[in-house]
C-alpha cells in the first residue's frame, strides 16, 4: 500500500556474492626451483544484511531501487595470499518490518529492534587454496577448490506499524481529528470517507511525563477482512498494537452495531486480535445534550460489553480522561 511517501509493502530482488576461488600455485623463487604449494584461499562473497533503523517509518527508499547484488569474493593468490571478502550490502528497514520469501510467502524473520541485523542471504564460501591439500604422499597438489555460489531470491518486505494504541473505526469516524488533537501529528483531515490512506503515528503526552504512541489506522469498511476496499492492507497494522481504541461517532445509527461490525472484521482477519485490550470512545459527543447523552449511556451500559466513554475532539470533552484510561491499560 502506498500513498505519497508512505510505502509499507515492496518486493525486492537480492543476490549475495559468490565465493572467490582458491589458488593453485606452487612456490617459485631464485634458488628454490621446486617449492611446495602456497596457493591462498578465496574470499567470502558479500552478504545481504537487513538492519533495523528506528528513524525510518516507511519502505519508500525501496520504491525506485529494488535490485541488490553483493560483491563476489576475490580469488586467492600466491604466497598463501587470501582473497578479499566481497563487500556486504546493508538494507536499512523500519522497525516492524516482516521479511518473507516472495515465492512461498514463508516468513523468514522480522526486524523489531533498532540496530538489529539479520543476514537475509549469505555470501558463498571462498574456496581453499592448494596449500591445504598437501600430504606426505602428494606434496605438490595441483588443484584447489572453487568458491561456492551465493544465494539469490525475491523478498517481500511488509511493514506493520509499531504503536501502543491503534485507532479503529469506520471512515469519517473522527480518528484523524482525535490524533491531531492529542498528539503533534498532522494527519490529513476531511469530511469524506477515506481521507486517511496511510497509518499516521503520533506521540501522546500525558501527566507525570508519561507518553505512548498512537496510530490512526485507515478506516475499516464491512468486508475489509476479505480484502474489500483497502481493508486487507490496513488490518495488518493493528496486529502490533497493545490496546485497540474503537472510535464511533455519537451520530451513528446504532453504536453497538457498528462496534460489533468492527470487532467481527478484526476477528475474521485474525482471531488473536480479540485478545487485546479494548476501549470504545464515542466521538463528536459535543453534539449531544445532557438528556440524549444519558439515554445513550443507559443503552450502552446494557448492551456494550467493553468500557466506553464520551469524548469530543472539538470541545476537548473527555480527552484527558481518555488519555488516563489508555495509559492505565498500557501500564497493566
Description of the molecule:
- This protein is an alpha/beta fold.
- The protein has 2 domains: 1-160, Distorted Sandwich (Spo0b-associated Gtp-binding Protein, Chain: A); 165-331, P-loop containing nucleotide triphosphate hydrolases (Rossmann fold), CATH 3.40.50.300.
- It is built from 5 helices and 16 strands.
- The strands form 4 sheets. Strands 12-13-11-14-15-16 form a 6-stranded mixed β-sheet, with helices on both faces. Strands 5-3-10-7-8 form a 5-stranded mixed β-sheet, with no helix packed on it.
- Strand 7 (97-101) and strand 8 form a beta hairpin.
- One of its GO terms (cellular component) is cytoplasm.
- It is found in: Cytoplasm.
- Pfam families: GTP1_OBG (PF01018), MMR_HSR1 (PF01926).
- GTP binds at residues 169-176, 194-198, 216-219, 283-286, 312-314.
Summarize the structure.
By secondary structure, the protein is of the alpha/beta class.
Structure keywords:
332 residues, rod-shaped, Rossmann fold, six-stranded mixed sheet, 2 domains, Spo0b-associated Gtp-binding Protein, Chain: A, alpha/beta, five-stranded mixed sheet, 5 helices, ribosome binding, GTP-bd_Obg/CgtA, hydrolase, disordered N terminus
